[in-house]
Amino acid sequence: MYESENRSTEGLSAMSNTTRSVSSQQMLDRLCRESSQGASEIAVVTSPGAKTAAWTVKVKSLSSYNVYNVIAVVIGNAGSEPSEIGQQMQAVNLAESFTQEGILSAETYAIMARVGGKNVFYAEP
Fold first, then answer.
1. Beta strand spans in the chain (E)
2. How many CB atoms lie within 10 A of CB 118?
3. Are 93 and 106 in contact, with CB atoms under 8 Å apart?
4. Which end of the chain is more exposed for a tag (fewer CB within 10 A), N or C?
């Protein structure tokens, strides 16, 4: 009799895990909607206190096409020049064409974000 109770408990545990898995999948399905063109939209939930990956940067020079060498800056009190910190990095200007040489001038300030493993910013030339 003990053996049959043990099997019954194992069956309930397996059903519980399956139910949790189905429930999680249903939640993901609700968060991911598909449009008529087949493009997916995914919602991401962050917890309180989560950090955004965005920095104020100053354009130093053009690297190639719409890719620029930038450096992070700290904005101080009103009337003071922002201070450069860290090392130069490369970032893509989304306001310019990907197939033509960029024309954004050096000393331009922008907000840079880390998206999909790339540094990107938007600054009109």
1. 32-34, 40-42, 54-64, 67-74, 83-93, 109-115, 118-121
2. 11
3. no
4. N
Question: Left if phi > 0, otherwise alpha if psi is -120 to 50, otherwise beta: which for 38?
Answer: left
Residue closest to 89 by CA, chosen among 62, 68, 117: 68
CB 102 within 8 A of CB 60: no
CB 102, CB 96: distance < 8 Å: yes
Closest to 107 (Cα-Cα) out of 68, 60, 69 = 60
Cα 5 → chain centroid: 49
List the structure tokens of 53. 């990956």
| Alpha carbon 108 to chain centroid, angstroms | 23
Delimit the domains of the chain by residue range: 2-42, 54-121
Which two structure tokens, joined as six digits, stand for 65?
Answer: 């096409």
Nearest-angstrom CA–CA distance, 42 and 32: 5
